Amino acid sequence: MEMKLELIAIPVADVDRARDFYKDKIGFTLDHDHTVNENLRFVQMTPVGSACSICFGVGIADNMKPGSIKGLQMVVKDAQAAHDELKGRGVDVTDVETQVWGKFIYFNDPDGNAWALQELPPRGQFKV
After folding, report:
1. Is the pTM higher than 0.85?
2. What is d(CA 116, CA 14) in angstroms, rounded to the nearest whole number?
3. What is the pLDDT along the chain (128 residues), one digit of tens a residue?
4. Contact present, 97 and 104 (Cβ < 8 Å)
5. What is the Cα–Cα distance from 54 to 44, expressed in whole angstroms?
6. What is the 3-state secondary structure (H, E, C) of the chain?
7. Hey, CA dihedral for 78, 84, 86, 92, is it positive or negative?
C-alpha cells in the first residue's frame, strides 16, 4: 500500500500573521486562503519544491495549542545559503550546526512551532 504525506495542520493564534510569516519570511507558496464561513477559514501553503503542504486557519487544528508542533523538518541543498537567505528576510534562525548526519539550522514561527532545515551529507558516506 502506497501512502503519501501531503498535508500537515499547524496550530496558530493569528492566521494572517502566520500566512504572512510563511509567505514573506520563509518563502512558502500560498496555495489557498478561503473563508468558508465565520467558523472556517482554510489556508494552505507549500514549501517551494515540496509535495507536502501545511494548513492552518479558523476551524483548523482548533484542538491543538498554537506553538505545540515541534520537530518539523525540511531538506535544503545548502544549509548556509538557507541560513543567509532567511536571516536576510528577518527570520530569527540559528547558526548552522554540523553533525555527522548533516548540517542543520532551526527557527520558530511566530507562535513557537519549531522547524529544522537539514542539508543532507553526501550519499554513501556511512558504512555499516
Report:
1. yes
2. 22
3. 999 999 999 999 999 999 999 999 999 999 999 999 999 999 999 999 999 999 999 999 999 999 999 999 999 999 999 999 999 999 999 999 999 889 999 999 999 999 999 999 887 766 55
4. yes
5. 6
6. CCCCCCEEECCCCCHHHHHHHHHHHHCCEEEEEEEEECCEEEEEEECCCCCCEEEEEECCCCCCCCCCCCCEEEEECCHHHHHHHHHHCCCCCCCCEEECCEEEEEEECCCCCEEEEEECCCCCCCCC
7. positive
Residue type, 74: M
Grid cell for residue 27: 518563502
Amino acid sitting at position 20: D
